[in-house]
Amino acid sequence: FLFCKIKGDATDLGLPTHNLWYFNGYDLDQAFDKYFSNPAEVRPPTVYIGFPCTKDTTWKKRFPGVSNCILISDGLYEWFEKWADKPVKHRGAEYFAFKNKLTKHLLDILYECVPEVKGHVEYHELGTPLSEITYLGSFHGGSYGTMCRPEMFAKINHKWTTTPHTTIPGLYLAGSDAFLPAVCGAMYGGCFGAAAVLGHLGTFRLALAFLGHFANNIKRENPELTWFQAYRSAVKSFLTD
C-alpha cells in the first residue's frame, strides 16, 4: 500500500472519481515471475489506484485544499521476513532503501496514469506486509483475507467457514470472515452478516432498501423511465451484475 497526501482540491486538480487499474503487460504470468524475482528493479504487474477523497462528500469541509490517494500492489512476505523481529521505525537502512525502491515504482506509475498529481504529492508512506502484521495482526501480512482453498467448502468446516454464524450465542461474523476474501467476498459477507442479525423479515426489508437505492439512481440517470421500469431494471441489475 502506498498512501499519498496531495496538495490541492480534487476538483481543481481534475482527479478521477473512479478507480484505476494499471497493468504493465498482457502476459501476467511472465510479468509476475519477473517482478517476484527482482522487485527492486522491476515494476509491479498490477496496481490499483484510488482517490478516497473524491468519494467522501464530507472530505472538502474536513480537509480543504488537500486530497489523498492510495495505491495497492502485490508483494511477498518473504521479501521482508528478515526484518520481522525489528520494531517499527527501527528496521534499518536496508529496509528503508528497499521500501524507497518500491515506492518509486508506484509513484512513477501514479504520475503516468494521473499526470495531474505530479508535483503535488506532499507526503507518502509505503505499507509493507510487516505494517499489516504490526497494525492489523494479519498472518504474514495478508491484506485480503485467508487463502482460498477447496478445503474451505469441506463438510467438516461448514460450521466455521463461509457462514456468518458462530457457536457463541449473539456473536456473528461479517465481511470476508463470513464468506470469501477480497473486496467482493467482504461485500457479500457483510450482507450475510446483516441478514443473520436481521432475520428473514429484516433481510427482506434490507433487500427492498437496496433495490430502492438502485432504482433511484437509475431513475436519476434516465428521467424518462417510469418508476416501474426503474425498479425492473434495478432487479435485473441486482440479479445479473
List keywords for this structure.
globular, 241 residues, 7 helices, 5-stranded antiparallel sheet
Radius of gyration: 22 Å
Q: What's the mean pLDDT score?
A: 91
Structural class: alpha+beta
Number of separate helices: 7
Shape: globular
Strands in their spatial order, largest beta sheet: 2-3-4-1-5
Helix content: 40-55%
Q: Note the quaternary state here.
A: single chain
Which regions contain 5 or more consecutive residues with pLDDT less than 50? none
Number of strands: 5
End-to-end separation in angstroms reads 28 Å
- What percent strand? 5-15%
H/E topology pattern: EHEHEHEHEHHH
Instruction: Please give the largest β-sheet.
Output: 5 strands, antiparallel
How would you portray this structure in words?
The protein is of the alpha+beta class and 241 residues long. Helix content is 42%, strand content 12%. It has helices at 10-13, 28-37, 59-62, 93-113, 129-136, 182-221, 227-240, and strands spanning 2-7, 20-23, 46-50, 66-72, 121-126. A five-stranded antiparallel sheet has the order 2-3-4-1-5, with helices on one face. Helix 6 runs antiparallel to helix 7 (227-240). The longest helix is centred in the C-terminal third of the chain and has 40 residues, at 182-221. The protein is globular, with a radius of gyration of 22 Å. The two termini are 28 Å apart. The model has no long low-confidence stretch (mean pLDDT 91).
